[in-house]
Design a protein that fits this description.
Blueprint (H helix, E strand, L loop, with lengths): L8 E11 L5 E8 L3 H5 L5 H5 L3 H10 E4 L7 H5 L3 H17 L3 E5 L6 E5 L5 E4 L8 E5 L46
Antiparallel strand pairs: 1-2, 2-3, 4-5, 5-6, 6-7
Protein name: Phage tail assembly protein
């Protein structure tokens, strides 16, 4: 076991933002790592049982812990998100729960060498080759553009990431949807 700490919450900025009943825009938020219960309990929800697409809504409502000044984030808030924001949260969920870090793989435009960058700030993430995982061993703060291949929400999913500009979208494939994974380096 290493002496590092486990990051359990991740900040995000929605591409569009949630507009509440008073017209206030909420873009900044936090998402926590999902637990087994977060993926199992929604399956007991009658709305999920009658419409499997609703699983995404219920699951995200459990793991999004903050969104702007809202006191409560429930399924009704997630239902009212713009599609680009919902897709952004799905991609974030996959990155942090499947990889343990909000990082995406991209490639050097000059040599084609693949590497990983922090999706929140664009910094280069170095990995511990011996462990073979995405444990951060160091950071180079140079900004880089990124993109990702989006799949369905759930830790059982295995996302594949490809080099792309973060602000572009691509054609949809049968297995995945691409969108604006947002939050370029600021």
């Amino acid at each position: 076991m290493t002496g590092g700490t486990l990051q359990t919450e991740f900040e995000f900025t929605l591409p569009q933002g949630y507009v509440d009943d008073e017209g206030t825009l909420h873009k900044e938020g936090r998402m926590r790592l999902a637990t087994a219960a977060d993926e199992i309990k929604p399956l007991q929800n009658p709305r999920v049982q009658s419409n499997s697409s609703y699983l995404t809504i219920v699951l995200l409502s459990r793991v999004v812990t903050e969104l702007g000044d809202l006191e409560t984030i429930d399924a009704s808030v997630i239902e009212e998100l713009f599609v680009t924001d919902l897709e952004y949260l799905q991609a974030l969920y996959e990155r942090i729960n499947n990889q343990g870090i909000n990082a995406v793989e991209t490639a050097c435009p000059e040599c084609g060498e693949p590497f990983e960058i922090n999706a929140e700030n664009g910094s280069h993430v170095t990995t511990d080759g011996a462990a073979g995982g995405m444990e951060s061993a160091g950071v180079d703060t140079g900004p880089v553009s990124t993109g990702g291949d989006l799949g369905g929400v759930g830790a059982a999913e295995s996302p594949g990431f490809e080099a792309a500009d973060m602000r572009t979208t691509g054609a949809e494939s049968p297995e995945s949807e691409e969108s604006d994974p947002g939050n370029p380096a600021e």
